[in-house]
Amino acid sequence: MSLAQLRSLSCSVLSGPTIGFRTIASILALLAFALPPALAQDAGTSSARYTVNAGDELDVFVWGEERMQRQVLVQPDGTFAFPLAGTIKASGRNVSDIAMELRERISLNYRAAPPDVTVSLRGATGMRFYVVGKVRTPGSFTSGTAPNVLQALSMAGGTAEFADVRHAVILRQTQQGQIVEPVQLQKLLKGGRSLDPGTLAKPLPTLSSGDVLVVP
């Protein structure tokens, strides 16, 4: 299902004054088909949990094995090839997970303890997320790091007229299932006087790859 269809259904189900169970269920059902499988992985809530995408460049360092140091490019199918490890799926995973699998595969070629493996992000094409509903420019966006909700909203041009910021939510697909995270956009946009004590000291909600910020 295309992004255009995602926008169309989002606009129709978000036409009411509040976002209810049917609205959430409709969008979640759509997301199951609209988002690629790689985006269904739990990416965490910070840039340290950045999920690798096709087109990203990775540095792979195998300790004590200079001949196996590589800069690899994640191919369009989300994989890359590495000596003694074969083809590794990278898309939708963080660098720690990739390093762990590399070490496990390489260890099959060692009788003694296998070398440690470090993977770092050399160049990112950007994580992809969606902002839909009553915003000025709804659609798909990319960012080199995980944006917070205000940054994501800014990239979508801000809220449109009659937006119900009190009921904005983040829709996220994880390995455990689909979750809905309420966002206090009303308080964040109005400023300090309407924020609960201690709110400013807390990190703003952060979007991960594949997340959808819904502003009804």
Cα gyration radius (Å): 20 Å
The CATH architecture of the largest domain: Roll
The coarse overall form would be elongated
| Overall SS class | alpha+beta
Beta-strand content estimate: 15-25%
Neighbour order of strands in the largest sheet: 7-6-10-8-9
Kindly report the name of the CATH homologous superfamily of the largest domain.
Answer: Outer membrane lipoprotein wza domain like
The CATH class designation of the largest domain is Alpha Beta
What is the total domain count? 2
Mean pLDDT: 77
Report the CATH topology name of the largest domain.
Outer membrane lipoprotein wza fold like
**Separate helix tally:** 5
Largest sheet: 5 strands, mixed
Instruction: Provide the succession of SSEs.
Output: HHEEEEHEEEHEEHE
Poorly predicted ranges: 11-18, 32-47
Domain Polysaccharide export protein N-terminal: 47-121
Protein name: Polysaccharide export protein N-terminal domain-containing protein
Signal peptide: 1-40
GO molecular function: polysaccharide transmembrane transporter activity
Any overview of this molecule?
A hairpin with a 7-residue loop joins strand 1 and strand 2. The protein has five helices and ten strands; from the N terminus they run H-H-E-E-E-E-H-E-E-E-H-E-E-H-E. The protein has two domains: 3-46 and 126-215, Outer membrane lipoprotein wza fold like (Roll), CATH 3.10.560.10; 51-123, 2-Layer Sandwich (wza like fold), CATH 3.30.1950.10. The protein is 24% helix and 25% strand. The protein is of the alpha+beta class and 216 residues long. The model is unreliable at 11-18 and 32-47 (pLDDT under 50).
